[in-house]
Write a structure and sequence with these properties.
YbaK protein; 10 strands; 27% strand
């Protein structure tokens, strides 16, 4: 396991969890808006876009689910080669509807900047848990990459450890562009 200088809340959370991971620091690069952060990370790392996963946040706008108590926000983790399917995400959460969270709110509630939002070490949610759904395709890779908590820093981790540490579930939530 390698650590970035100074670490991030994400690497600290993984160290506490005692799982194996590798940090890849490729430096903050200028981002082509057409490419986006996830695809730019894949290019900088020299790996397939299907192995680099982006962390997105949604707001639940429709009620439902087994307890009829919806989470306020949820985390979606999908390959950089896909977009989040909002209907699929709502289905995975057992609610009627979700909407993408705006960038400013995502930054405020996670403690990270867009392009560096990690699924690990986010600020604690203010009410209830923040459920996490990972696209089922992650299981087809030996390791995947997620943001390490700042732009230009990715964490390589096994899908099993990613899922376990986040207490996440998997579902087909990624939609090809």
């Amino acid at each position: 396991m390698s650590r970035p200088r100074g670490g991030t809340p994400a690497t600290t959370a993984l160290e506490r969890a005692g799982v194996s991971f590798v940090v890849h620091d490729f430096g903050e690069q200028p981002i082509d808006p057409e490419l986006g952060y996830g695809r730019a990370a894949a290019a900088a790392l020299g790996v397939d876009e299907d192995r680099v996963f982006k962390t997105l946040l949604v707001t639940v706008t429709g009620s439902g689910g087994p307890t009829n108590r919806s989470p306020h926000h949820a985390v979606a983790i999908v390959p950089a080669s896909t977009q989040l399917g909002l209907k699929a995400m709502a289905t995975a959460l057992g609610v009627r509807k979700v909407e993408m969270l705006d960038a400013a709110t995502a930054e405020r509630i996670t403690g990270y900047v867009v392009g560096g939002i990690s699924p690990f070490g986010q600020r604690a949610p203010t009410r209830g848990e923040r459920p996490t759904i990972i696209d089922v395709s992650c299981g087809s890779h030996e390791t995947v990459f997620v943001s390490g908590g700042k732009r230009g820093l990715d964490i390589e981790i096994s899908p099993a450890d990613l899922t376990a540490v986040l207490r996440a579930t998997t579902a087909p939530i990624g939609v090809r562009h």
